[in-house]
Predict the structure.
Amino acid sequence: MSYTIKTAEQYKQAYQHSIEDPEGFWAEVAGHFFWQKTWDKVLEWDFRKPELKWFIGAKLNITENCLDRHLATKGDQTAILFEPNDPAAPNRSYTYRQLYESVCKTANALKANGIQKGDRVCFYMPMVPELAIGVLACARIGAIHSVVFAGFSANSLADRIKDATCKMVICSDYNDRGAKHIIVKDVVDEALAMGCDSVKTVLVHRNTGGKINWREGRDKWWHEEVDHQSHACPAEPMDAEDMLFILYTSGSTGKPKGVVHTCGGYMVYTCYTFQNVFQYEDDDIYWCTADIGWVTGHSYIVYGPLLAGATTVMFEGVPTYPDASRFWQVCEKLRVTQFYTAPTAIRALMAHGDQYVEGFDLASIKVLGSVGEPINEEAWRWYYDKVGKGRAPIVDTWWQTETGGILISPLPGITPSRPCYATYPLPGIQPCLLDQEGREIEGNDVEGLLCIKFPWPSILRTTYGDHERCRQTYFAPFDNYYFTGDGARRDADGMYRIIGRVDDVINVSGHRLGTAEIENAINTHPQVVESAVVGYPHDIKGQGIYAYVITSAPVADDNTFRHELLDAVSKVIGPIAKPDKIQIVSGLPKTRSGKIMRRILRKVASGDTSSLGDVSTLLNPEVVDEIIDGALNE
Ligand code: WTA
């Protein structure tokens, strides 16, 4: 595409242009898409409200840009290349034409089942092509998708269905993931029994086959609803600012919030960044190993690549099944050219030993990507040396569910990359560092709170059903800035290094979890009086979950109690939120106003008790020694 940056000089020019004339810059990029009607105005914004509008007055349908637009030139090119969990099973693939027809049929089936523009549809599915097809079918008719990661519990699923008052749930019968065989439909039934009255239909995709429970009238088979439909479905004209999807994400407080993205800006930004960060070229095979249940899957498995007319790989399995060479086997077999994964996967595979990566022909790989959490230098080097064989540049891409697309990243082979650094902002992005008082920290070789000064097209518009919460979380902490929740360092060359969250969000194996959510789950155990959860450095997961728990009476059987706590967390949130360590304590260090001193708990959890600072002003200083003595730093 003509907006693809190819040289460092072009990057500088594009960046300069995007700062001096943001509206002109983005209008030029947006000119490469198919709009049913173009915009009257590029941007209106006010961070204080917040009000964020891009391409005002424009009409479009994102699926016309993902599908219809490519039919003439790329109809027979593979759009989705599916690698199933079982390595012996054949690859399934969809050309752009087949994908177009499948999306249209599915869209017609949704309509036939009463789904209209603006209705919310929840997805709870493994990584099979039907998930991408379903999501696009929603977009085709203007329904809003809310994909819930299939590792979440029935409780979490029910919360999300209720928050968005979804009319339909689309799920699978079963999910084969690694050696596990999970009954997905049962989880959905359990969730729907928790008062999800808005759901009228459950559309069930037969993935593995096998007996499942069935509710006549409510449950319908995907193939029975979809297969006979016409493979033409007009694309609903959408306002650029109409909602495209909701995606729930964890924050410091309360329940996860539904981050809202809209059609126009999200389309322009995800495609632009996909194209530039991965330098996709014709005939490349791009593979992002994320799950579509997270934002990375939305933006860089489905929308970004399809908008750019790429071949995108969808992988159903896990990196260690049947063994720790699976990623590399697949890269060799499919001739993958861009490979995008999370540091936690790299660390886990590195720990299995080099023999799993050596011996595979990975010469096709041109670009390696990293996302979701800070990548430590050792993992970065291993990725670069063992996977990229020193030939493929690494793009350490920093972004968030709320940002919709990548904000800070190297451009491979074009701008410099450096271990542990996301490096420089992409065109259109104006990052800055603030101190605690909200003053901008100028100059280089400094550290502070990472904020963004100016909107970009795919910035979140609101949190579903609660605009005030959006303002409070992202725009109220610092006047007239978007606050990311991350701390960062800007080095002598002006490059950004992300340090990690400065709020009560922890990042466990690249999954974002709120400590308050985990505490609430632990507190459902009848014997728990109070708990405090913090993150601590973990070799593989990045951060591990450390829970301090106060019980109402001494526990009779320590082991049983711990298992009950883990079960409680699995039930309320999902297995991904299970604490790695649980320490039973008699009290938690608190200030005189009753606030838990998490700083102390974090230090103890990390095994560093050298600099706890002055604890004498605490309400209960004596508890600190007890906590240190009982700390689980084996
Ligand atoms: C963290 C994932 C360091 C960060 C796309 C952010 C990163 C949170 C990086 C968002 C990176 C993401 N280096 N940290 N390259 N990318 N993060 O919403 O703390 O699941 O705020 O979006 O992940 O997580 P989310």
In short: Residues 265 and 586 are 51 Å apart (CA to CA). The first helix runs from residue 8 to 20. The first strand starts at residue 41 and ends at 46. The chain is about 30% helix and 25% strand.
